[in-house]
């Protein structure tokens, strides 16, 4: 590939406050935890860092506060070779923070205080229109106001820039927005909420994907955790197995997946190849603690691919 893929990520930046504990505390319960770490996070920034490490030229569009965390978040993105021209620092506002507990099985519980992310307006996105229109792909999530998400997607559509929308955290989406999305990447909970209005609604993977396609989404890629992924292609639904990994922390696995999917598609790969590449990136990310610290490089993903291809797992569809 002569030039790296150009990806613009519109979304959140948080500081993750991570504590490892034997288990997730019950309501009203206090338990003693172990290791504590402060790590850059936020779904938007996670996806930006992952995409950059996977070889893309990345622009980040978002907001931080004028506090110490905001300075650290910007410095970290710059260290990751991400263009932060359109990350705004908001006066008198705190940066977003995520309180994360990780249990011994690597599963997590997360509470987010949105801070500056909640103050990101459509105007912040409009200022970055020149970057969006010159990109190969827009990657966006739902940790910023919905009107800002809608404006970013609208701008991308106007300039015929493909859009991957990761509908996380789970939220209902209008059909007008869905019709402008090239690829929607829900997990099962998010998919159920979008089509039934309830996160625990009764709907199979096939029903979720078919309903979303009928609502106007061009293609759907569903992440299924340990059960792999499912995606729509030419009127059929394909399934791919997950890689079996020793799980340390699942935080950021979905962000690694979305970044891998976006990078590979922006480079001109097929959807099947992109999903396979994304699965490898996500699998590697769960083997380390934290979100951004665990994001793999392109070399690590390619090494993982070669290792698994030579006597390793075989994909099934």
Automatic annotation (TrEMBL):
Cellular localization per UniProt: Cytoplasm
Protein's pathway: Carbohydrate metabolism; D-ribose degradation; D-ribose 5-phosphate from beta-D-ribopyranose: step 2/2
Required cofactor names: Mg(2+)
Residue numbers binding substrate: 14-16, 42-46, 143, 255
Regulation: Activated by a monovalent cation that binds near, but not in, the active site. The most likely occupant of the site in vivo is potassium. Ion binding induces a conformational change that may alter substrate affinity.
Residues reported to bind ATP: 187, 223-228, 254-255
GO molecular function: ribokinase activity
Name recorded for this polypeptide: Ribokinase
Organism: Paenibacillus alginolyticus
CDD domains: ribokinase (cd01174)
